[in-house]
Amino acid sequence: MEKIQNIAIVGRGAIGVIYGSLLMKKMGYKHVAFLCDAKRKARYEKQDVLFNGQPMHFQYITQGDDFYPDLIIVATKYVKIKQTIEEIRPFVHESTVIISTMNGIKSEDDLRESFGRYHVIRTIAQKMSSVYHNNQVTAHPLGELVIGAEDRNDLANLARLEEVFDYAEIPYLLSTDIKRDAYSKLMINCGVNQTCAAYHLTYGDLQKEGKYRDMVIATMREVAKVAAFEDIRLTEEDITAWMKALDAVDPQGMPSMAQDVLENRPTEIGLFAGMIVPLAHKYKVKVPYNENFLAMLGN
User: Hey, which of 62, 89, 257, 263 would disulfide with 193, CB 3.0 to 4.6 Å?
Assistant: First the structure.
């Protein structure tokens, strides 16, 4: 089994900086690099980004540079998926593993369509509270990655990921049903991200009893109803566990979707209500909360 020694990260947002920092700390500057275009490379190299108050001097690479990643972490927004695929294409070799920290459940399918089924291990980034503002990333807590095999052919690359995550002390969980866990994460994203984005709320606003917390739970229940028609069973126990996780994050934080609304950037509504509403119509399931969010946040 070939060890993962060199890692490229696409997307120097909050999640990219979190994992770039953790990986560089253990693996060293030469083995971790952010992949970007020449214009961004020149800008990034002029000023280090701060991570929890500490300057991070990262390596930056662009197409044509001599760097051969064994692992590529895609940490961009889904709106950039097509551009990202073309950026990483020259760096993908026979044994490269690709993981995506994007929200939703669609990015792995897009990556597999471009690079083959077994380069891509389905991954979930969850339970972090992070903010990127003025070249500074703050993250409390750091959260965790969830990884898992969808069939036996994923097992070798999954083992490679476990080895490097253990070495670099990356918080992660090994899932026994990664597709279900991905739908579960989609459920909390639909509830929390959309509510915060639509009404300009922080996590703290959802940690208090009231209409917005009730809205989160009702939206999650709609997703669970739709998921059942996709042979994914999500339960009230799942909702309770997610609400407990929500109550543990920084009350001053907010999901990236809410930050996008405040900064007048395109949102990822297409990954959330934009996916659930058409499925609900297909299966004749009523999803009024998701329909409302789609109307409010549709780009």
Answer: 257
pLDDT of 127: 86
Question: Could you give phi then psi for residue 52, rounded to 5 degrees?
Answer: 50, 40
Residue ranges of domains in the chain, CATH in brackets: 7-174 (3.40.50.720), 180-297 (1.10.1040.10)
- Contact, 285 vs 229, CB < 8 A? yes
pLDDT digits (tens, 9 = 90+) for 65-117: 999 999 999 999 898 999 999 999 999 999 999 999 999 999 999 999 999 99
Give the sign of the dihedral formed by CA 157, CA 162, CA 163, CA 169. Answer: positive
Q: What share of the chain is helix, strand, coil (3-state, %, to 5)?
A: 55, 15, 30
CB atoms within 10 A of CB 289: 24
**54: helix, strand or coil:** strand
Distant-in-sequence, close-in-space partners of 214: CB < 8 Å, separation ≥ 6: none
How far apart are alpha carbons 188 and 181 in whole angstroms?
11
Residue where the block lists tokens 């670099």: 168
One DSSP character per residue, 85-137 reads HHHHGGG--TT-EEEE--SSSSHHHHHHHHH-GGGB--EEEES--EEEETTEE
pTM: 0.91
